[in-house]
Amino acid sequence: MSQPPPVPESLLSATIEHLQRDAPFDRMEQEPLTYLVSHLRLGYYPKDAIILTPAHGVAQSFYVIKQGTVVGEQVDEGRADEGANWQLVQGECFPLGALLAARPVASVYRAVEDTFCYELPVEHFTELIRRSLPFRDFCTRRIANLLEQSTLVIQAQYSQKSNAQQSLRSALSTLIRRQPVTCRPETSIHDALQAMQEHRIGSIAIVDEHGGPAGMFTLADLLAKVALTRADISRPIGSFMSTDLVTLPPQAFAHEAAMEMARRGVHHVLIVDNRQLVGVISEKDLFSLQRLGLTEISAAIHNATASAALVPISEDIRQLAHNLLAQGVAAEQLTQFIATLNDLLTQRVIALACREAGLEGLEFCWLSLGSEGRQEQTLNTDQDNGIIFRVPTGGEAEQVRAALLPMAGRVNQALAECGFPLCKGNIMAGNPQWCLSLDEWDARFAAWVQRGDAPVLLQATIFFDFRPLYGVTDLARELRARLHQKIRENRLFLRNMVMNALGNRPPLGVIRDFVVSDADELPHSMDLKCNGITPFVDAARIYSLAAGLAETNTLRRLRGIGEQWHMEQKQINAWIDAFFFIQLLRLRVHHEQREQGRPLSNRVDPDTLNDLDRRILKEAFRQARKLQALLERDFQF
Amino acid sequence: MTRSRFFKPRVEPALVSRIVAWRRRSAADLAADAAKMRWVVVDVESSGQNPCSDHLLSIGAVAIQDGRIRFDDGFETVLQQSHASDTANILLHGIGGQRQVAGEPPDLALTRFLEYCGKDPVVAFHAAFDKALIGRALDTVLGIDLASRWLDLVYLAPGLLPEIKERCHTLDDWAAQFGIINHARHNAVADALATAELFLALYPEGAASRHEPGQ
Fold first, then answer.
1. What is the pLDDT of residue A460?
2. What is the pLDDT of residue A293?
3. Cβ pair A10:B187 closer than 8 A
4. Are residues A312 and A238 in the same domain?
5. Of A1, A575, B151, B198, which has the fewest beta carbons less than 10 angstroms from its beta carbon?
6. Domain of A353?
7. Minimum Cα–Cα distance from A52: chain B residue
8. What is the CA radius of gyration of chain B?
9. Residue A166 and residue A531: Cα distance in Å, rounded?
10. Chain A residue with Cα closest to B175
11. Does B73 touch chain A (CB under 8 A)?
12. pLDDT (tens digit, 9 = 90+) per residue, A404-439?
């Protein structure tokens, strides 16, 4: 028989169906899938059996796990630590690199439980790559490809949600943006107008002594009933307010509010729950989602003349971030958006506070620290900031500090009102500890680099990522130069930083796939920040401090050190992809928590992720391990 | 022995030469390395539970060679019936009345099956049942005997794993022990595949785990 007999029809269709549960088979067409299945073999490997080792020579087959679990073990002599192992589960393929390069595998593949693998001889593997573009893409652009698919899944999931939001089918309770600004009927028109001016709103709700709605007063009322009648504005607002109110319960839909507004010719709807006024929805709010854009928000920040006006804008930034997340915008752009807008907002808050404080002639610079310093904030980032200033000739540091601290304290408060919680460790510019002259900072850093003990190393991860945000940036630049000089002179400090960084291992086990623990907030979970993001951030910081790189952003640091340390571009890209995937996952987790009204946390239960995300996350953790292994090796001095 | 005595008249002449060619093939060397040998793993569906009175509806098979199940070496047929089996029976194997009546002519189907098996040993779970049904069909339709060596996992499995035999009685029980998932129970090919997976799992030292580098 020269032609191989066809595969029994029922076996063919059942096998294709089985394969199609996983990437890349889910995107392959029928013809290449038929070709694939027609040339498959099925092998069995009992627990602990070796499937492939470098000793087998040039890779001969492409394996797809039908059922069971396989572990890959790096056989790098002298470094047989667990950091080099990874797990493959049902639906995963191996060994792609070895097959593509026609070389032996670099790892030992072992079954960790009874395992069945589909096997495709290499000549058919090569032919399949020729026949199927999705298969070729998958084999050659592994992480990038999985990421792309994951993005598609997110888009599909979220597009339904955002449509619902924009189609006015959401409940009014979700549109209430803040506590209503209210006054009593006996409040004078003057005082009411002042409150409206302060909150930059065009209307004010009037409530009775029980908090129930009594009336509404708008700028239109001001024109018609007060200004044109030349009424005395010290008179109580009760006699001028409109009492023809449109009220709806919080459960009512946005479209009902829109309809009522149109029908009654009003621009506001009062949301009343249990006879209490809980919110005011304006026409503008109903269409706010369409209004939220990068340019609109930056213009609004720029035009704000009081820090109170920045509060709703900060809420807009969060909403925009969620919308972008829903649209499947890549993590890199997303974090950039958030960072850029938060920077603008913070700069505006500082500018407004400085104007009030009248600090002319003082040379100082506001420093962003920690994740803000790295421009990697998520949506639950605490404030971390400080001030660096220059002591004028003949002046005293204490005097300058005393002048700056009230302004700094006001900025910290204003930022807190804008949703950036105060730092629990009090690492804030308003704390005299962190409002220091150039020489004071310098002396402090010098002492840290000398000591190099655990608390200092923890401080270093926050403070050494300082970035000038507002004011005289030269001060920050000079401090950076001095810091790098100190580190150059004390390499031992870097070694200590490495030891500290290696304490945060990615939660990947040898036998089970993810290592989870039972935290108070979420049982059976792992910390995406400490064990996922931090390994990348720490390694990038150490390499760039060693190289004297001024960058604080992890992405730019990784790109920068690639050149300095002669790392492979492909490897750097894999780290960046991995870093952003974990970051994106964190943002998504936050998004869901926010939707469900839960406090934001970095913990996630891997069982709640879909298969694809679990696989990418595993791959991302594997990349973190690789980076840590390299870090350990490069700083063994 | 003349040909006319062996082959009943209803066998098409074109098939006769194929059957002769099959008969001339040399018997499998049962002393050869079991890990390299070709095994045919078979399962049948029938019109009922009695191998003496019920008849063969379909045959499904996959081959194992070099310790691996070969997808390019499978076999499947639904034999043509003069009338369909009853509804309860159809519900079990899912071969509808129309498909039964429109099946493959039995002489052709069975000749193909002979060619597919060659002289290689045949494996089944409850082999007695499969052997009886196939044997009766071969005898009635072609007037010959498969004469292959049969290996029955119903006896082999408890013999190899006495510690779990108490828990396992059916193919499903044994499959569950190894996490084998049957994609379509009571489809002859799917059952044959599950049986083949069980065979590999029972025979690991002869299976894929003994890797042969290169070809």
1. 92
2. 59
3. yes
4. no
5. A1
6. 292-489
7. B211
8. 18
9. 37
10. A114
11. yes
12. 999 999 999 999 999 888 988 899 999 999 999 999
Whether A619 has its CB under 8 Å from any CB of chain B: the answer is no
* Tokens 């300082």 belong to residue: A466
Q: Which of A255, A290, A325 is the last residue of a domain?
A: A290
Most A CBs within 10 Å: which of B211, B212, B215, as the mutation test of the A interface? B211
Nearest-CB residue to B190 (from A14, A40, A52): A14
A330 interfaces chain B, CB cutoff of 8 Å: no
Which residues does chain A have within 8 Å of residue B214's beta carbon, measured at their own beta carbons? 57, 60
Contact in structure between A256 and A248 (CB atoms under 8 Å): yes
Side chain identity, residue A3: Q
Considering the domain architecture, whether residues A446 and A460 belong to the same structural domain is answered as yes
> In this predicted structure, what is the pLDDT of residue B5?
44
Q: How far is B45 from chain A (nearest CA, A)?
A: 14
The token pair that represents A117 in the structure block: 């693998």
Token pair, residue A508, equals 């990947």
Residues A188-205 have pLDDT tens digits of 999 999 999 988 888 899
User: What ipTM was reported for this prediction?
Assistant: 0.81
Sign (positive/negative) of CA torsion B177, B180, B184, B189? negative
Domain boundary among A261, A290, A319: A290
Mean pLDDT of A41-66: 91
Do B127 and B85 contact (CB within 8 A), yes or no? no
- Work out the average pLDDT over A464-470: 95
- CATH number for A528: 1.20.120
Contact A542, A631 (CB under 8 A): yes
Cβ contacts (< 8 Å) between A120 and chain B: which residues?
none
Binary contact (B71, A10; C-beta < 8 A) = no
